[in-house]
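Archive entry. Fields below.
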Amino acid sequence: MSKVEVFRAHHFDDLDQQHAASWIGMWVFLATEVMFFGGMFAGYTVYRYWYPQAFADASNHLDVLLGGINTAVLICSSFTMALAVYSAETSRRKPLITFLLLTIALGLVFLGIKFFEYYTKFEEHLVPGSLFKFEGPLARHAEIFFSFYFAMTGMHAVHMIIGIGLLTALVFQARRGRFSALYHTPVELTGLYWHFVDIVWIFLFPLLYLLGRHL
Amino acid sequence: MKFEPLVSRRTYALVFLTLLVLTALTTAIAFVDLGGGWNNVVALTIAVAKAALVILYFMHVRYSDKLTWVFVGAGFFWLLIMIGGIMDDVRTRPLLSPETAGTAAQSRAR
Amino acid sequence: MSLPEIEHREHYLNINYGIRSWLLTTDHKRIAWLYLLSVTFFFFIGGLFATLVRLELMTPQGDLVQAETYNKLFTMHGVTMVFFFLIPAIPAVLGNFLVPMMIGARDLAFPRLNLASWYIFILGGAFTLTAAAAGGVDTGWTFYTPYSSIYSNTHVVLTVVGVFVTGFSSILTGLNFIVTIHKMRAPGMTWFRLPLFIWSHYATSIIFILGTPVIAITLVLVGLERIFGLGIFDPALGGDPVLFQHLFWFYSHPAVYIMVLPAMGVVSELIACFSRKRIFGYTVVAFASLAIAVIGFLVWGHHMFVSGQSVHAGMIFSLLSFLVAIPSAIKVFNWTATLYKGSVSYDAPMLYALGFIGLFTIGGLTGLFLATLGVDVHVHDTYFIVAHFHYIMVGGSVMGYLGGIHFWWPKMTGRTYPEGWARLAALIIFIGFNLTFFPQFVLGYIGMPRRYHVYPPEFQVLNVMSTAGASILAVGYLLPLVYLIWSLRYGAVAGANPWGARGLEWQTSSPPPTSNFDRTPVVTEGAYAYEKDPEEIYTFRKPAHV
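PREDICTED_STRUCTURE:
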């Protein structure tokens, strides 16, 4: 039995079957995530349809520069993640660890900027609830916008934190030499997860930050 | 046993740069009034393009089997069913103006 | 006294003893047992709430409990039964046990995720039971806003957390089934040789995957609104309670197909075996399962005809709801055609299967009345609805579950249950069920609203009939609990294939070895080849990988 056979679970016939099952399994999970975030996108669509002016006004209170930087940060992190997978596929242990660490770092930068944004929103009394203050007659509808802002970016941030946790576990495993061209499924699957979280943000950015800039 | 990577680093770099360019593009266009709801269309089109690039190249779907394509498609298709069904109701509700939906109740002191 | 034949041979039950070997197992068969015990527990909890509801409804006055308490009782009954019994029961018990065996695999694709799904189920149940113990929740199992998100003073957050957590148990089960069925079929087991039980569970898993996340996020939003005041459904802010209903029913309608599709899968297996015949129109029935799952996602608005939804949307949902009945009807016709000129026997599992067909048909036909916009305006939120869904969920799903438990009991335990008692129980259940729920159709039609603990005195006779039926039903449900447990010790030893059935699961010993088959099966024939001997259908290769 070759060294890589040790990764085969007993109920699979061979590594190919195991890999195919894991790959498809991850995509099935991502389909559930699409529907999970999708519920919030559906709600957003309804209220934006009904209250376009309020949503545009509220959106303009978000910092488009920080949002844009964060978008770029996440795209970079997807790039480093793809390179991490590439390194695992080509048995390059040190670049794998480097790219995993870079991805984590970029993820942390994103979260840092995000929480800074949350803090400023809190100071500006734009957090929904009893402390919410917004000038003008559209205040109530603007509060709905901010409810979606916090719910959607908050849920996204939770997923980022989980992703950083997964990546950290991968770093420890990579340091122990677990991954190579013959077996790197966990790196691949974590990559799929990370890219998915990036895609969610790719939609959140224009829908939350950009919708009212032209008005 | 040699494993050939599905996607080259060069391709990743090209996709990465394209994504950055598209991000800059969508941000810049957002400040220009294209009129008639076109801002929405453009923003969503660019977002879909970015997502497609990530899915096809970063997530290797371009080189994956048909089953993967089905699952990728199913998720997004189902989301469209949900949004479409809800919006069909919302858009065909009668003359009741959405602005009146909440005014019947006094604004509550929260 | 234990019988020697079983104890000498090693199988999945005796390979390891001790609580750790059960709580840390990754064997899908043992996990099925963990679920069996759990869902049985929740079934009786839900039954307890139902008992209190029916006791209150014996008299027109609200004399047993206060109104607020009554609201909690029917809510907890619904939440417990729907999320902690009906949705998991057949897939997590019978599906977990049988899916790998029916396709010739050694386990599901992700055994550890399977165990995790059970722990998640228990965790969700713990939250919900804690909410019940702490005073319960009174919003109805449907958690409509803004009552649930703003005004209710009961333990909404605890309960929705419990349901949210349990949802992930469903998701993991569905994920496991889909991947397993795609990737782990034995040699020769092509898609159209699969038993219809597998097709049903595949279709169910599609719903698990695409539907459950939506109720998950919806309940999160309700929780966020209660805790942080994120007013997404708050009318005072311009929020729309109907949006909640859209999101809620987008899952909860397909959820009812989660409850019924697996039962239909069981029924296909039972009808074939106890008619000694192939299922008539196998391919059509297989596609009908998929059609039910897909079309089932398009009809959710039929729960919202009187909620403020537009008439336009109502008409579309009404039309689609008629369409979704078609594949179900096709199945009923095909089962009936299977019986025709079959060699029919009436063992207990078959009694449940036949009961399913009759009661599901009644429930389904009344569903057509409800899909009719004009009729639904009259009977919505009355006992007509209550009767309709209980015919499907209890007359349908629970009968399917019991039929399946009896049918595969010998395979799971190596013992046979007492057939006489089982037939008696099936009969008692059938009678008790109809006495409980048929009067409710009449009650609803003549105007008794649901979720009320008081009613006009002219409704009392029918209510008393219903409560009487419920007590008979309770006896019927208690009987299997007793004799099935009894059979574990004193039941006759079962051979590998006591029913003479054709499925792959019957080609290995009862109870099966841990890896299901000592040798990898090779399939050469479709399911239900009752005109052939099993040896003509399956061969076995050299010892499988271990």
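CURATOR_NOTE: Chain C has one domain: 4-543.
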